[in-house]
């Protein structure tokens, strides 16, 4: 019996979302004076970029949670805000206790 061939699988992690495929990139990903962020991984909700903060010599991780078109817009904003804040609080608390987690240097809707 002939085994059907499956269509090629699109990689989940490819290019950062562009305006043609997703919402416009937030200002922090396009701001001309920053180092262009490089997408390094993707989680269930967020995209993780390697970038720099303030100076090209200061590396940082940039976690971006794009809006989810499958969620109700009001719920989406609420969940995203809550998750960003919760993660930041946990990171700050951990760092205060001496756990070697990344320092939170900036956060917000558009950072
Ligand atoms: N500071 C960091 N440096 C390097 N990799 C990171 C960093 N933070 C997260 N990652 C990686 O990014 C990926 C996704 O991270 P994370 O689990 O935080 O996001 P998520 O699953 O999309 O969202 P959620 O915060 O809801 O779990 C994971 O593979 C994680 O190891
Ligand atoms: Mg996760």
From TrEMBL:
Source organism of the structure:
Phialocephala subalpina
Where does the record place Polar residues bias? 15-24
GO MF entries:
ATP binding; protein serine/threonine kinase activity
Q: In the Enzyme Commission scheme, what number(s) does this protein have?
A: 2.7.11.1
Q: Which reaction does it catalyse?
A: L-seryl-[protein] + ATP = O-phospho-L-seryl-[protein] + ADP + H(+); L-threonyl-[protein] + ATP = O-phospho-L-threonyl-[protein] + ADP + H(+)
Q: Could you name the Gene Ontology cellular component terms for this entry?
A: cytosol; EKC/KEOPS complex; nucleus
Q: Which UniProt keywords apply?
A: ATP-binding, Kinase, Nucleotide-binding, Transferase
| Sequence segments annotated as region (Disordered) | 1-26
Q: Which GO terms describe its biological process?
A: tRNA threonylcarbamoyladenosine metabolic process
Specify residue ranges for compositional bias: Pro residues.
1-10
Gene3D superfamilies, alphabetized: Phosphorylase Kinase, domain 1
Which leading EC class covers this enzyme? transferase
Q: What is this protein called?
A: non-specific serine/threonine protein kinase
